Sequence to fold (1216 residues):
Amino acid sequence: MTGGREVSRVAIERIDAETCTGCGSCVDSCCMDVIRMDDEGGLAMIRYPEDCILCHFCALDCPVDAITVTPEKTGPLPLSWG
Amino acid sequence: MKEVSTVTDVLVVGGGMAGSFAAIRARQQGADVVVVDKGHVSRSGSTPYPKNMMVFDPGARGHDLERWMGEVALTGEYLNDRAWTEVVLRESRQVFDQLVSWGVGFRKDADGRILRNWGVSGGIESVQLEADSLAPTLRGQLLRHGISIVERVMLTELIVADNRVLGAVGVSTINEVVHVFTAKAVVLCTGASSFKPYGFPLGSVTGDGVAMAYRAGVEITGKEFYDTHATSARHPADVRYLSMERPSGQMPPLGLRTAEGETIELPGPTTLLPEFEAHAGRAPLTPVGPGPGAPSPCDAGPGPDAMVGGAGLGYGGVGEGIWPADGHCGSSLPGLFSAGEACGTRVVGARYPGGGWGVPSAGVTGDRAGRGAAAWAVGAETEPIDGGIVAALTASALAPLRRNGGFGPDWVTQMLRNTVAPYYVLGIGKGDRLEAVLTLVGFMRDHLVPRLMARDAHELRKAHETRNMVLNAEMKLRAALFRTESRGTHYREDFPARSDPDWLAWVVLADRDGHMTPARREIPRDWWPDLALPYGSRYPLAFPGEDRPDETRQPLGAPAQGDDDGRQGGVAGGD
Amino acid sequence: MRETIIQTDVLVIGGGMAGCFAAVKARAAGRDVVLVDKGWVSKTGETPYAGDTTVFNPDWGHDLDAWLTQVHTVGEYLDDPRWTAIVFGEAYERFLDLKAFGVEFLEEGCEPVRLAHPLTQLEMPDAHKFPPLVSQVVHWLPGWPAKLRKAVLRSGATIVDRFVVTELLVQDGRVTGAAGFDVDGREPRVIRAGAVVMSAGGGGFKAIGYPTHGLTADGHVMAYRAGAQVTGKEFLSPHHTNPEAPGWPPIYPVFASGHSAAFPGAWHDPEMVNAEGDEVPVRGMAWHGWIDAEWEAHEGRAPVRAAGPPDGQVRPLSGPGGQGSMLGHAAGGIVPVDDTCATHVPGLYAAGDSCGTCFVGAAYSGFGFATMHAAVTGARAGLGAAEYAQGADRAAPDAAAEAAAVERALAPLRRAGGFGPRWTTQVLQNTLAPYFVLYVKQDERLRAALSTVEFLRDHVVPKLYARDDHELRLAHETASMVANAEMKLRASLFRTESRGTHFREDFPHRDDAWLAWVRLKDEGGAMTPFAEPIPEEFHPDPALPYEQRYPMRLPGEEA
Fold:
């Protein structure tokens, strides 16, 4: 089964295409390989949102503030107690 | 299928703190060095995040070695390897100086003096790294030293023949390319292990190096200890590990208020106190105290929320990992070295004595491993690698891509996480629960992992990480089952007390004929606590369910060992 | 805390199809009736999502023997043919009742449209090995559940909505009422009654996407705790979903705008293709075909693609939405001791998915069966309870026992802390979700899951806490789910064979030594399984070869 993707988990919510300059810093910033450059326009795109771990580096490293990370938008976490 | 071959003297796996120190030292010793990382060096692993750095400085700060050693032994409940503790203490100042010389920023007070803080237990002092200064600086130094960096390649297996390591095989995480590294020495600096918690930025530390070493027949130690991290109930995934605003966002609070309104003083960092309180039915817990609070939600004002548990999701801490065979972090496999959180130095023993040990430990072991690897490489010949071995390793590296059907890594990881996350598995252990989870993990290992499939290179990385996480889970469960006592951050409900002298020993795991087999390794007698002392003096921290015959039971939360200056945690300026 | 006490003759717990019939019939017998529901009568449980109901009627050309044979064979001889005959025998009367309530049916020329079993329209491989699928359904028009509610009100029964019953009151071995609390925070209540009908539905684990999160086996668990027995817990009624949108839309067409069985992929598309591009061998259980996709996944041949929800497009299937419905439609429930739906606890009756008549056996063979079973057993239970209440001497109420029950109901609110019900439910879901626990079963894995469930039962459930009345309801549902999980695991461990929707990897064949129902009872605090042999007259002909007795091939049984 290839399921298990929590598509509601879009903690990295948006890369604003109008603001993005295609510098690629965010691609480097992401240790989970969530972001890639798209094929055509050379802009950054959220390719694997389900792997976002909320480190915020992409947003922090972006020189033009094009990235929105919304921490509340995560799926149910397997917490060890609660 | 494209294949890229790289030949070098020393292959350093992982470009974080440990890997950078190892690579740079080896380079300085004249070796050809390649650093390979599955992500982007300076944004991979745990190195982007540390706040504190322990620096032992008898000269300028008047620190007393015996006192610090005593502190570590007491909090580490005698399981720290004293030789390594002393080495890391003594050499931490050199690491600090090296970082300063490279331009790494340390926080200073208004007068420009480096800020000092100390852990809640005793007088172990640390300095504070400026946010996001360490990792980028290290990357710059790697490049300055002429070290080749190969990024976004995940190693899947070591190449071993004739009882020597000869290199490693890996896969690109971007496209279907296999990488074959031929090296005389390999230094595993792959960091700690976790089950990819959300929020705690440990998604990339999946114990890959320890897994490869285990599969190559090397011993692993320290897997029974549980480095837990709480988070906030409001946004459990948002711990803002790298928050710039708070000076030491990851320092623990000084106390906890239970649901019943009782405030319990925390005796120190990294205890299982939150787990004990939750188990007793006294959650929700709210951090309190004059010290820095627990991680807060990103947009909340000051003031902590109720805590919830285990966001670290089984994060493996400092000092567990590959058993070091010598002072250069070599292993039982000639040519294989390890450093940082992949190296099982047991430098702090059964419990972490405070913030800041990760960075100096990584620097010291990295430096030593680099020296050792370079020396080994000088003496060794490059061995040609049997094509058949490479073909087999390549095939298994790519196997998930070749499979039409099977199990997706996301699903298997989710099943694994769900199984090991509850506190009553790894946090508060008990024989029958550990065995139960081991049954399920065994099924994952035997039935699901061999059928992992990937649709692209990104998923291929995840498939291999999943495989390594399942192995890590098995290690943690078996070690926890084997150690039939409680000590430090290993707690067994069915064996709630420390058992001296039987368990004045380390647990090592190794593959024997395809079975993960635990064994005891006694600590040197010199390092034993004085058994004539009452149990309570040897172990001030009381565990639930312990029978303390020599004193009235003190709840967990007994005051920390006294500090001469009356300092009980906090931040102060000073030289 | 002062309780508001309600007194009545017949208390009906759960206002779905079964409960509404029970209430109406008990009223018709002249008794006072209170119908309680933790939600809103007619919007609750699985009833609102039912598309249709089965009606047996010889005047419509139905052959009872053919219908019984269908159930008996597909149910793999674990049906109780006495109950099957009762349900089919009384279906037409209940159908007329529904019409009298005002429920409108799809009609053509003043005659209800009768829709054949949907799978008769498909080319099924191996179809010749199975008895013909002959049952039919009639299809109601939208808005029908509201007619049920109106019928209850018109009958003069009292409806109490948003009231969670947490415990049955038992005195001198008989049921004397129930205790619980009001979800809007009004005073807690005790309901004293001469007899009780438990019609609280089946139970699952709040599968995301399956709109039956209120069905948490409360009825089964309360009755069990009061001394009743429970049966059929090893069987499942799973439903697949898809990983791209696992939670949407609900599997059932809520708006009943089309015949549910004709909704493409709503149940199961027999044309499945595995990851190798091969057709998935359909094992003749296609009308519930759950094991086929599970087995392909287990063998490493997922993704399995089929036309499925939400829109009948071909996409990968995924394991049953969360835990599917796992309601054990009409297979599991409280054991009835006679045909009035009385249980082992005098004064307690059971109906609908709460009643383990075993009328379909080990696997569901028809569409619309559960709703008619609910109507028939609801009516019988209502009449049975009415008669019992009339004849029973009312014991003097035990105020202390009632107060203690109310305190137990409120206990999570009193606790300052402990374990939250949402976390506990998530942990339970995580334990039961993997297919290799409750779908492809095996001894050690079942025991491993049971170990967790026992820990939850002993350590976590007693410390559940709630911050408000809404969470109080969640806390009680969580406790029920943990108990239901224990029932499912123990029953699955006990039956060391495979049959119907109970599949054991370690016992992958049917074993006719197991022609018995597995029941669970509380013995000194321990949940104890035992086998109740099926009367020999209902056994399959032992002279028939295994392949003919069991036309459905289980994984590993292919020729």
